[in-house]
User: What shape does this take?
Amino acid sequence: MKAVQLHAYGGVDQLFYEDVPDPKPGPGELLVKVAATSVNPIDWKLRRGDRKDAMPLKLPAILGRDVAGTVLSLGSGTQGFKVGDRIMGLVNRAYAEFLVAKPEDLTHIPDGLNTDDAAALPLVVLTGSQLIEDGVRPKPGQTVLVTGAVGNVGRTAVYVARKHGMKVIAGVKASQQKEAETLGSGQVVALDDDKAIAALGQVDAIADTVGHDVIQKLMPHIRANGVLATVVGAPAGSQGKDFRVQQVWSHPDSKRLHELAEAVAKGEFSIPIAKRMKLSQVREAQTIAEAGGVSKILLIP
Assistant: This one.
């Protein structure tokens, strides 16, 4: 099969679209024909070697966490799926024509959701929901500020927090305020405007997808006994404060993924797709995504 392999840590020139052996499902596994995968920040962070201490790779390595496709064959003892099922999930080695996965990491693609489009969802919607549900631990009536609210993780966090009855403030750049108003949050604040931050008042929680200088300016606005939940690591100076700091690392959850995919299929929220590119164009796709300013890029084998 064709796949994209990372031969060494570094730039996109270390990604090679090439022939590799076809994977074979073992007991309790299934073989998936990949219809689409997508580019996530973790992909280029792994490529560059940013995470090699915490997440070392055995090179050459196939990257890619999101998958949407169809079941081709089942290993012995595999339950819950049949050949031909449309599936999606949070997996590994998705930059390929085929992959082997565990059934517990996959779910059926809901009716009304295009197969390719489903590949935009797994990592970002699970991260956004886990940021709220595992990190913030929401209670109805509480106020949460979601930073980077128009990003893919952020817009999921806004949706999930609202469904839990929280009052949501969407934190964005001033240039994104109009777009943020479409998310249905009760309030929008420009995080690149110091006066707007100063006028923010106190919040019960911050769900942070941005980090850097922004979160430093926002931490004083967290109430005593509040929470700072983050997917970008605990910020400097956050230890010893009178609020809880909760780092959130995404993990597979097929049941929750299916629920969120159904919500997308019903139009309750969306993960915008900016580009659809061939898997063989992975160097260009990662370059575009790494530069920022675009939403999801799908890669089609």
